[in-house]
Amino acid sequence: KAVVSTQSGHYGRGTNPDYFAMMIANTLIGNWNRAQGGGRTMPSAFARKVYEQKHPQSYMAFNTCYKDTGLFGVYGVCEPDEDAVRKFIGAIQSEWRRIFRSASPGEVQRAKNLLKTLLLAQCDGSTAVCEDIGRQMLTYGRRIPLAEIDARVEAVTPSVLKKVVGEYVYDRDPVLVGIGATEGLPDQLLIKFQQSSGMD
């Protein structure tokens, strides 16, 4: 198992404009596991890539935000093989560079639509709505209306996404955590170099 992540934006009591851009980047990467199949037809370009290259058994992107900081990254489960872990981490950083350089308007719009769907699906039922109200009160200090969430998500363009991903990913010291057969984890200096390589 391996996790690679960088520091992300915080909620900032609902005032941080980067929050939804990082959520869209998170949605672009998505998640996948071998059991679900359909690798070639997944909407996520990264899911299609790891399916073809067979690096991880599963992966899940995350963007966890707190009051004053956050973590943006990918968690993956690989075969106990040094080469598989190394290639998977390289693929993650390659995907971050691709989003920074060339995320198309079409895939950004698809990610925005999917993000809004996921946010709405979290409010299915009175229990989920109460949890959402509590979460928003703790993080934003108020409940954000759906119309405002929609407007904030729609305000993220490919150029905004490039700016925000560049700010939080480019030339940042990534955090790398491994459990199990960690012999294949790349050297920290190499990971830091790859974090800036090709993102100019």
Summarize the structure.
With 200 residues, the chain is an alpha+beta fold. The chain has helices spanning 19-29, 45-53, 82-102, 105-121, 126-139, 146-154, 158-169, 188-196, and strands at residues 2-7, 31-33, 56-65, 70-78, 175-178.
Name the strands of the widest sheet in spatial order.
2-3-4-1-5
Class from helix and strand fractions: alpha+beta
Over all CA atoms, what is the radius of gyration?
A: 17 Å
**Mean of all residue-level pLDDT scores:** 84
Strand content: 15-25%
- Succession of helices and strands: EHEHEEHHHHHEH
Amino- and carboxy-terminal Cα gap: 30 Å
Low-confidence runs (pLDDT<50, min 5 residues)? none
Give the oligomeric state: single chain
- Separate helix tally: 8
The largest sheet is: 5 strands, antiparallel
Helicity, in percent? 40-55%
Shape: globular
The count of strands amounts to 5
Topology readout:
Blueprint: E1 2-7, H1 19-29, E2 31-33, H2 45-53, E3 56-65, E4 70-78, H3 82-102, H4 105-121, H5 126-139, H6 146-154, H7 158-169, E5 175-178, H8 188-196
Antiparallel strand pairs: 1-4, 1-5, 2-3, 3-4
Model description:
It is built from 8 helices and 5 strands, in the order βαβαββαααααβα. The protein is an alpha+beta fold and 200 residues long. A hairpin with a 4-residue loop joins strand 3 and strand 4. The longest helix is centred in the middle third of the chain and has 21 residues.
How would you describe this structure in keywords?
alpha+beta; 200 residues; 5-stranded antiparallel beta sheet
